[in-house]
## 1
Amino acid sequence: MKCPYCGAPDTQVKDSRPTDDGTSIRRRRVCSDCGGRFTTFERVQLRELTVVKRSGRKVAFDRDKLSRSISTALRKRPVDEERVERLVNGLVRQIESLGESEITSEQIGRIVMKGLKALDDVAYVRFASVYRNFSEAKDFTAVLDELSIEDETKAEEA
């Protein structure tokens, strides 16, 4: 593993352990050249996924991009980082288990929205505003109306 500080080609693993959810291995590393310490995570990748954008362009699936977009939606929200990591891991497993080598960005968006709705309503609305390309205030009202209708339905079922 290349050192992120000095670029040295070799680093040593000092400690390895599974993460709390058991989906990856956390490795503490140290650079033999500069002495820098850093952490890496090793995850299972079931297959190479390609994302088909709305424009038709195809790009490789990027777990980190998914994680960043979810973190952006959750910015300044009282959601524990561990719950966010579990959500991202679950979404990636769900996407990979679809069995397809290509997935549309719309499919990913729907999956993420479903996960965010269960985690945090505000993050759901934030993500929806980008995913659905809101252009007017009434677009927010429509999503909020959807949420309130679902909340009423859940309350009636309970």
## 2
Amino acid sequence: MPQEVDTNELLLKLSELQTLYKFMTQELLSEHQLSASALNLIDILGEEKATLKSITEKSQLDKSTISRQMNNLVKKELVIKTSGEDKRYAYFALAEDAKSIYSTYNQTFKEQFSGMLAGWTEEEKHLLSVLLGRLNRSMTNGLKNSKMI
């Protein structure tokens, strides 16, 4: 007969996972001299040119915050700001340095994570993936039902 699992124990494990993941990402971001918000904006821009309005919509943050962060990335020469034909609109695109830093960050992160799972069997990794996917769907549905998202 399956053993009953205490919800508090699951929540503690999730909290610990979140803390460890955050620590791992902060260490790596620090090595690449990036902030989490800068990484998020670089990810949002990708290979496209975008206006402040479209970046704001994708990030779901307020326009003043995005404007300040984008101007900071422009000063660091990670983002190129250009004017459109209509001078009221500015367009932002990633500089090659930003693309390179982002690629290196992602590759290093994947390698570190793979190293942490080195002792795991393929079945264990697959099971973790399935269970995390199920948890994500359950949480998404629960949040939708409670109208939080």
## 3
Amino acid sequence: MIVAFSVAPSGGSSTDSVHDAVAAAVRVVRESGLPNRTSSMFTEVEGEWDEVMEVVRRATEAVGAYGTRVSLVLKADIRPGHVGELDGKVERLEAAIARHEA
């Protein structure tokens, strides 16, 4: 499965940096060893249900240290028996675009 998620704190002081909180979450994801990618709005992580959700839980908890409340947005692509889709989906998309440009 692939999970795309965004997590952010609220309720902290006005001097708290959201960047630091997001960095804490991304550190958890990267240290998990699971395939992952971070963009300007989401972090994607790929693996089995339990391991991915554990990473999301830990990342959310890491952000919790930066505020009194945490907002979590999560989208999942659950496709049993498929691995390497973090890159595979993008490769198929790029190939389709290239075919249509030719």
